TrEMBL record:
Family: Belongs to the MoaC family.
Active-site feature positions: 127
EC numbers on record: 4.6.1.17
Protein name: Cyclic pyranopterin monophosphate synthase
Length: 158
């Protein structure tokens, strides 16, 4: 039998968790993804030399938009009024490191929104650069930290 905050109801069926009784608190999550590519690909993306245009600007916007649509993409995820979403993309050798943060004042966390933003940003960069490097890989999609909420704070080591 299900009880507490679970995605299973009393019959063992998937359902959306009722967060109606939880207090609204300030919540923030940060996620990261890494796009590994050939050095020339990283240079082309960072330098704005792709034929499709400014990949960094397009990917940032895609990540922000994806965070706002997370409940439409992830089953049983609550729609959340986001107060802030930021996406940063930094070139590091043969990789682009994407860091996405999402914030809200609400009854449930924003981990999925940050993870979705980081993932979609990486996918957008892949899409924009695939004509020159189909061997790119997206790795290390992970929650880096979260603050707020009943479960407390979390920070990934290293």
């Amino acid at each position: 039998m299900a009880n507490g905050l679970t995605h299973l109801n009393e019959r063992g069926e998937a359902h959306m968790v009722d967060v109606g009784g939880k207090d609204a608190t300030r919540r923030r999550a940060v996620a990261r993804a890494v796009l590994e590519a050939q050095p020339e690909t990283v240079e082309a993306i960072i330098g704005g030399a792709l034929k499709k245009g400014d990949a960094l600007a397009v990917a940032r916007i895609a990540g922000i938009m994806a965070a706002k649509k997370t409940a439409d993409l992830i089953p049983l995820c609550h729609p959340i009024p986001l107060t802030k979403v930021e996406v940063e993309i930094i070139g590091e050798g043969v990789a682009l490191v994407i860091t996405a943060s999402a914030e809200t004042t609400g009854q449930t966390g924003v981990e999925m929104e940050a993870l979705t933003a980081a993932s979609v940003t990486a996918l957008t960069l892949y899409d924009m650069a695939k004509a020159i490097d189909r061997g790119m890989t997206i790795t290390n999609v992970q929650l880096v930290e979260k603050t707020g909420g009943k479960s407390g704070d979390y920070r990934r080591e290293s």
